[in-house]
Amino acid sequence: MRTLKLAAAAAGVLFAAPVFAQDMAPAAPADTAMAAPADTAPQAPDGTRAFGIEPYVGIMGGWEQFDNEPNHGIPQAVNSDGTLRNNYRLAGALVQGVVGFNVPLGPVFVGAEGNVAKGVSGNIDWEYGAAGRFGVRAGDSGMFYGKVGYQWVDFDNYPAFVSGDRNNKKVDGVTYGIGTEFGPKDIGLQGITGNAGFRIRAEVNTFGDFHSFRPMLGVITHF
Fold first, then answer.
1. Is residue 112 a contact partner of residue 132, using CB atoms and an 8 Å limit?
2. Using one digit for the tens of pLDDT, what is the confidence trace for 10-61?
3. Could you give the CA distance from residue 125 to residue 93 in angstroms, rounded to a whole number?
4. Which CATH architecture describes the domain 2-23+45-222?
5. What is the pTM of this model?
6. SS3 sequence, 149-188?
7. What percent of the chain is helix, strand and coil (3-state, nearest 5)?
8. Phi and psi for 168 in degrees, rounded to 5?
9. C-alpha closest to that of 20 among 132, 180, 129, 135
10. Domain ranges in the chain?
11. Are 48 and 42 in contact (CB under 8 A)?
């Protein structure tokens, strides 16, 4: 089920890419004879410099649900007598802060970011990790990307793991994700923030071998 959800999200991102790509090239001046000499320096699709470093910070909100089945996903919570703790919820809403940087390379980019998230419902307590990003640039500050990283998850009052280590309430593993960012002009607001300012980010991630489903939406401030 997790695989089907991620595949559907990936298809949505890929379907949207051509729409943003239509805006990649700036329109030529109507009167080329009167136009100022063209800037021959390399540029990215949004008119910014093609090479450099773009730092950013952001805040996001969303939901994560972990698989919690025998021999699959996160080990099930058990009581001191070994019985299953059925009311333990390894799912809930999250608020997450991110900080990172992009390195534009013409029409593509690479980058890295760190994150810290706090659970606000269910039994997810804290999450933190880091990831690398890579993708393409399109339109006015638009981006489509994939990401790979490593994440640590602390569960609130987790009573025991099936391994028998009752003091361990943390799990960790590789994470994967896909997403998109788009600036004001890309959503019809006439580029009011110019080449720096706010972008909306939407992404979906999974933990380990598709052991969780984590859709997130937020605002990134780049400069």
1. yes
2. 444 444 444 444 444 444 444 444 444 445 556 666 666 667 788 999 999 9
3. 10
4. Beta Barrel (2.40)
5. 0.72
6. EEEEEEECCCCCCCCCCCCCCEEEEEEEEEEEEECHHHHC
7. 10, 50, 40
8. -95, 115
9. 180
10. 2-23+45-222
11. no
